[in-house]
Amino acid sequence: MNDTVISAKNLSLTFETNDGPVHALKDINLDIAKGEFVSFIGPSGCGKTTFLRCMADLETPTGGEITVNGVTPREARKSRAYGYVFQAAGLYPWRTIGGNIRLPLEIMGYSKEDQAKRVQQVLELVELDGFDRKFPWQLSGGMQQRASIARALAFDADILLMDEPFGALDEIVRDHLNEQLLALWARTEKTIGFVTHSIPEAVYLSTKIVVMSPRPGRIADVIDSTLPKERPLEIRDTPEFIEIAHRVRDGLREGHADG
Hints:
This protein is of the alpha/beta class. The chain is built from 8 helices and 9 strands.
């Protein structure tokens, strides 16, 4: 897995505000390889979402550089290199679940036949088969978020960027969706960038955990997970899991002390 998909070199981003400049990101250096599941964790305001948005061409860095598949984020966006899942499901209430998932495919000009086939495929992937004619309000929060993931997967991008997609859900639903996301990742072999506030979630899901410090957002630690790819929820009680979680917590603490 030495194919670098996302590469940041001395990446910085400063927002100009009425109260003066805000240094959201400073000197970020990181490579993400093809097929990795990389979580970004840190306190609020540490730049983890901003970093994800730079990858997605939703923010423009003010220093350094970032490439996605060897090109600029803008070129990557135009070539539909990634799907993006936001914190809220963001489904249009007047469109069915199938209609919501079809939307990017309609915009991209896929044929009706291809749209129908892809919608069916991704509904099965996220275990929402048979829900295409339902409306968002008829689904639970967890199901809505799965539909949002299906929409991001519909055009089969190799990269999936996820900004705290399960943050608003209760713990039981979140656990279930974490299991489903790992199974989905194993089946599709996509490269995933995942923002979270939860240490157990970051450790459970990731092959690599990027610990970020408060403003200016910097990388405090990068932890390569030693957990096996097959991860039942019970793995969270193992000494190995607890040890990685401790290292993440230490990184967060040190980052706060340095910030």
